[in-house]
């Protein structure tokens, strides 16, 4: 008997950095389960990791069309829209994700990145702070804010956000590296 193909296997391969293999597993799964929103989510993430963001955006669009209440899918779709510079649309999807689950750290992090892209620094900081409050390992937003302040030569503000990042995740490589640059 053939083992059942699941999104778990694709997710495991993706976490191992085997994106092409993950996509093969997903394609097999979609032959028998063409309405699997989880398969389309895994496909979108793997394609994104391979730098195929246009294809990833299509897969994420299919994911959320199959399950419009899948918070992780909505937030990831928002992230891909931000990368495609479709910031207003990205913000709409981030807000949809948060309307469904206001305690989703990933969705807050994505919304913060969108706000930062829109140069709405105060809003970005609020979002990143909320994300970090929910899950202290979400510190990338603080590092991004620090980089923003650094480009403006506001080093004290930059260091403040590096310190917040290190407080949440003391051994995080990028936070430690960024701290050395100030």
Summarize the structure.
This protein has helices at 7-15, 19-32, 37-49, 53-66, 71-83, 87-100, 105-117, 121-134, 140-151, 155-168, 173-180. It is mainly alpha-helical.
Helix and strand arrangement:
Layout: H1 7-15, H2 19-32, H3 37-49, H4 53-66, H5 71-83, H6 87-100, H7 105-117, H8 121-134, H9 140-151, H10 155-168, H11 173-180
First CA to last CA: what distance? 59 Å
Number of helices: 11
Mean pLDDT score, rounded?
Answer: 89
Secondary-structure element series: HHHHHHHHHHH
Explain what you see.
With 182 residues, this protein is an all-alpha fold. It has 11 helices and no strands. The protein has helices at 7-15, 19-32, 37-49, 53-66, 71-83, 87-100, 105-117, 121-134, 140-151, 155-168, 173-180. Helix 1 runs parallel beside helix 3, helix 5 packs antiparallel against helix 6 and helix 7 packs antiparallel against helix 8. It is elongated. The model has no long low-confidence stretch (mean pLDDT 89).
């Amino acid at each position: 008997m053939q083992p059942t193909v699941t999104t778990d296997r694709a997710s495991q391969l993706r976490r191992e950095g085997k994106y092409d293999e993950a996509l093969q597993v997903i394609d097999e799964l979609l032959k028998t389960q063409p309405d699997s929103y989880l398969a389309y989510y895994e496909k979108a993430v793997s394609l994104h990791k391979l730098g195929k963001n246009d294809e990833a955006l299509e897969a994420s669009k299919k994911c959320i069309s199959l399950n419009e209440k899948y918070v992780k899918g909505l937030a990831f779709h928002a992230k891909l829209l931000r990368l495609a510079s479709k910031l207003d649309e990205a913000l709409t999807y981030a807000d949809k994700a948060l309307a469904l689950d206001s305690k989703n750290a990933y969705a807050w992090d994505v919304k913060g990145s969108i706000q930062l892209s829109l140069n709405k620094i105060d809003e970005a900081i609020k979002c990143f702070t909320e994300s970090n409050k929910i899950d202290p390992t979400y510190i990338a937003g603080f590092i991004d804010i620090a980089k923003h302040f650094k480009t403006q030569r506001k080093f004290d503000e930059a260091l403040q956000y590096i310190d917040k990042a290190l407080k949440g995740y003391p051994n995080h490589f990028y936070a430690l590296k960024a701290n050395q640059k100030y």
